[in-house]
Design goal:
single chain; Rossmann fold; Helicase, Ruva Protein, domain 3; five-stranded parallel β-sheet; about 45% helix
Length: about 475
């Protein structure tokens, strides 16, 4: 490990041999070690030495361990401290843990295995605290939490709930309409949790055929069913040590719900066709755009599973309830879209922003992003105006402009088939864009590949241009 990436540990002990031996052991474990003979020297060392944790003796001449922890607590932001104590001082050490915020205490003579485990946990806590502090600063200055964006009152409440529940192991149910950012909230939970260095695995229960969802969740052994040509680990195994997002869990078949409940309660999975159970350490986050309590009443969702998932609920607000976030959302999305499409859009013009505020956004933030992506591609550079959101924001025809407007319309007689209507719309849009397939695809809301395939299907000469 590079020197800069090795966590630093400060050893405070008045006995030279003790602190020297301890420092050598820490270096062998992969830490950077520094030493101090008492609390006064420790405070001086901490001005220059970046310590992820402190190991301090309790009884020392001069400034002892208790006074050192008091000073550090007064200063704030101190690294976690492990207190070393002799028999007879245990009550004092416990009070230090309670009153002065020491991480834990160990009796002398030291058990190196216990010290190593405590030190790993203390350093992990320090890393999490530093990461949370960075996110807090980011949130207060930019209205961001992970990939979630917003400074409105509803989003500030969401950020607060995420920060409160993230450090725990509680199961979380995230609800809200489609496109409100439920998966982004789940990722923020993961990134703020002690599991942030573990995997984040997401599975969409609505996208899985009923015959495959159990295999996706729990895995299968070779030969478990037709087509099972090799052993495969399921999402629970893949997410071991991390977080598993069960998206659109309201779509999960009832039979699978029963098996999921058992896994949640026992923390063990058995692959399809397998003979043994496998322990899994997974934090489960479920998401649904349905009201699961209503699904329970309708008999489509198990009540016991609902109660097991409904430990802590976070409801993502629809975009229409957080329109104050539009400027922030647009700024963040345009920055990302400029990079993706090599554009130089500078923002959203005031009149276009006013139009965005007047929309109902049934598809929420996802719909806004799609609208912005089309607009960014159409504009290429400069600010986005209402005209760039066509056909969503087609400006009202001006007096005397009826003839010009007619050039951008198509009229279809009753009896036109859907395929014929689709072809007429595509060809008219291409004429409008002077055969610019990139702009045409953006206006139509389809990919360039889909547009090309459609033109080839029609036998159009434009497919080869």
């Amino acid at each position: 490990m590079a020197e800069a990436n090795r966590p630093g540990v400060l050893v405070v002990d008045d006995e030279l041999n003790q602190r020297t031996a301890l420092a050598a052991m820490l270096e062998a474990w992969g830490y950077r070690a520094a030493t101090a003979a008492d609390g006064t020297e420790a405070l001086e060392k901490l001005r220059e030495f970046d310590a992820a944790a402190i190991i301090t003796d309790l009884m020392m001449p001069g400034m002892d361990g208790a006074e050192l922890l008091r000073r550090l607590k007064e200063q704030g932001g101190a690294p976690p401290a492990i207190v070393l104590t002799a028999f007879g001082n245990i009550e004092t050490a416990i009070r230090m843990v309670h009153d002065l915020g020491a991480f834990w205490f160990l009796e002398k003579p030291l058990q190196t295995g216990a010290l190593r485990l405590l030190l790993e946990r203390a350093v992990a806590q320090r890393k999490l605290a530093e990461y949370s502090e960075r996110l807090e600063r980011q949130l207060s200055s930019q209205g961001l939490l992970g990939e979630l964006v917003g400074g409105s009152a509803p989003m500030r409440e969401i950020f607060s709930l995420i920060r409160q529940v993230a450090p725990t192991s509680a199961t979380v149910l995230i609800t809200g309409e489609s496109g409100t950012g439920k998966e982004l909230a789940a990722r923020a939970l993961h990134q703020l949790s002690p599991r942030r260095d573990g995997p984040f695995v997401a599975i969409n229960c609505a996208a899985m055929p009923e015959t495959l969802i159990e295999s996706e969740l729990f895995g299968h052994e070779k030969g478990a069913f037709t087509g099972a040509l090799e052993r495969r680990r399921g999402c629970f195994e893949l997410a071991h040590g991390g977080t598993l997002l069960l998206d659109e869990i309201g779509e999960m078949p009832l039979a699978t719900q029963a098996k999921l409940l058992r896994v949640l309660e026992e923390r063990r999975v058995r692959r399809l066709g397998g003979a043994r159970e496998i322990e899994v350490d997974v934090r489960v986050v479920a998401a649904s755009n349905r009201r699961l309590d209503e699904e329970v009443r309708a008999g489509r969702f198990r009540e016991d599973l609902y109660f097991r998932l409904h430990v802590f609920e976070i409801r993502m607000p629809p975009l229409r309830e957080r329109l104050d976030d539009l400027p922030l959302l647009c700024e963040a999305m345009i920055r990302e879209l400029n990079q993706r499409h090599q554009c130089q859009v500078t923002g959203v013009a005031p009149e276009a922003l006013d139009w965005l505020r007047q929309q109902s956004w049934p598809g929420n933030v996802r719909q806004l992003r799609n609208a912005l992506e089309r607009a960014v591609i159409l504009a290429g550079a400069g600010p986005l105006g209402p005209q760039h959101f066509a056909p969503m924001a087609a400006p009202a025809p001006q007096p005397g402009a009826a003839q010009a407007a007619a050039a951008h319309e198509i009229r279809l007689p009753i009896g036109t088939t859907v395929d014929e209507a689709e072809r007429a719309l595509i060809e008219a849009t291409l004429r409008y864009t002077n055969n610019n397939r990139t702009r045409a695809a953006a206006i139509l809301g389809i990919s360039q590949k889909t547009l090309f395939n459609k033109l080839r299907e029609y036998g159009s000469a434009q497919a080869g241009e």
